[in-house]
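Our platform keeps sequence and structure together, in a single record for each protein. Because each token names a local backbone shape, the row as a whole describes the fold. One such record is reproduced below, unchanged from the form in which we store it:
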Amino acid sequence: MRVVAAMSGGVDSAVAAARMLDAGHEVVGVHLALSRSAATLRESARGCCTIEDAGDARRVADRLGIPFYVWDMAERFQRDVMDDFVAEYAAGRTPNPCLRCNESIKFAALLDKALALGFDAVATGHYAQVVERVAPDGEVVRELHRAVDADKDQSYVLGVLDADQLARAFFPLGDTTKPRIREEAAARGFSVAKKPDSYDICFIADGDTRGWLTKHLGEQPGEVVDAGSGEVVGTHQGAYGFTVGQRRGLGLDRSALDGDPRYVVGVDAPTNRVLIGTSDLLGVDLLTADHARWCGPAPTAEVRVGAQVRAHGEEVAAWARVDDTDPEVVHVRLDARLRGVAPGQSVVLYEGTRVVGSATIAATDRARVTAG
């Protein structure tokens, strides 16, 4: 099989490429140039996609003896990931750019280009597993499952893959822990064996999301309002800099409040208001989500699932059903309330370790408890 190995310049994608080669595939390494200012060297462990990373990837490819190319996808990344990120925050939502990158770049743009060039599949260094099973009709079905290493499991950010994309995707690291991957990289003589992981948002290298958004959206002064009383209790320089569940950086005059801590409980983009309240207002157990993506057939009835709303958040037992009139809308009823769930986040649904699918949270609510 002819396989494109996506090589970021890190240790995970290096070992993934090596394992695909060991498995007997014809492998070509590809580094995605996603930054328009890639000449800037990495300043911390947060950033990625720099010239330094491309060089690291090339050195691994040379050691493996495989062809290596750099594919420029900066314009697509800017439009589908970075511009989307800004637009979502401007609308009062909290997006996950890693899911958008996997959906639009790595398993749309990259896979489409690979197929157009005659390749059969794409392999990445994500920590997840593809499990093949034989359906009753004899068809071989590929399922996406959690990784063995729970601390590194990345099945959440892969929940946007559909069945066709999953059929052409390989994740060779899903059965191994991160420490063993580093040991394997060292044994293979890869210079990236001890390279720090990138984390958080790759295009915000210093980790200051609010500062980055301010550069793109400018200061937009507004009011901080108590959700219970409707009283104005403070001001802010941009509602886009806040997310549901946030406690720090609210800029409140504590002397005007009681002793209970306050949290962001809502962001009203049209009025540029940040709503705050006590912790009892944070818990929600009803989710309405759109832009549904299924890793296999969509559920045809209400199904029992596990629901996860953050990349490394807890999984909560739930019921999920597809909307009766709109197949891209999913309704999720959680068994227990979750705090800090914001519109724009993704809810990924599981059946055991299998990823059923995902959707983007559009609204949250709390089930009404009636006296019995």
Observations:
- Confidence is low (pLDDT under 50) at residues 39-47.
